[in-house]
Design a protein that fits this description.
alpha/beta
């Protein structure tokens, strides 16, 4: 049958937008999937499209979660035209936030977060699926330029239970699960939580809040306050 990705790239199918558009995952990610997947692997994706066809062609035991029956029908038609057997693909036609918590808790080898792009859907998808991904398994976060997916990718770079391996193409982050531990419950002063931001405040209040935070919550700031207090007390005692 040859490379399914090459055939898709030669003539991208209009699987989305009511049959008018191809909103596929980047070709670099599709090539990685085609080269990595093996028959019998346990895989799952949120969203559906060209990736679903590649998962099906690999012979993986695959689940795709999408709210669009219309897309499912067009994927089936494209699989038939390409000669891809999709008998090992199970579709869950519903929003991912409605079904992921209820799905069979089987151990997964590869997970692709590529469904709804708005906040907080990529993070929710990861939260439900991360415990089901085996240690050593791979996670792909698609459309990582969108705010929620970008925040997820940034978290994966700091969480010791994950290792970011690569960026496939320009928009798909590839990570590997290294430990079966939940995200750490950090407090606001812990550097590992990431850079704090007061961008939600108007400019003047932002400056005041940032200065106040540094003064009253950091070790250096508290030490400075204590020094001032001790000297003021000395003046009054004198």
């Amino acid at each position: 049958m040859g490379s399914v990705v090459s055939r898709l790239r030669a003539e991208p199918p209009a699987l989305h937008g009511g049959g008018t558009a191809f909103w596929g995952t980047g070709w670099g990610a599709l090539v990685w999937l085609e080269e990595t997947l093996r028959p019998g692997m346990a895989t799952l994706e949120t969203g559906a499209g060209a990736t679903t066809i590649v998962f099906a062609a690999s012979g993986a035991d695959h689940e795709a979660v999408t709210p669009s029956q219309d897309e499912v029908d067009r994927i089936a038609q494209e699989c038939e035209q390409l000669g891809v057997d999709q008998s090992r693909v199970r579709y869950h036609v519903a929003p991912s936030q409605d079904v992921l918590s209820e799905l069979e808790r089987r151990q997964l080898d590869v997970v692709l977060v590529g469904g709804a792009d708005g906040f907080p859907y990529p993070i929710l998808d990861w939260w439900y699926l991360a415990p089901r991904l085996r240690v050593g398994g791979h996670l792909l976060v698609d459309a990582a330029y969108n705010p929620a997916a970008s925040a997820l990718a940034a978290h994966l770079r700091t969480d010791p239970a994950w290792r970011v391996l690569d960026v496939l193409g320009y928009k798909t982050v590839l990570a590997q699960k290294t430990a079966d531990t939940p995200p750490r419950a950090l407090y606001a002063g812990d550097p590992a939580i990431g850079r704090l931001s007061f961008a939600y405040l108007p400019p003047l209040r932002r400056l005041r809040a940032s200065a106040r935070h540094r003064l009253f919550t950091t070790r250096a700031g508290l030490a400075a306050v204590e020094l001032v207090r001790s000297r003021v007390g000395w003046l009054f005692r004198g």
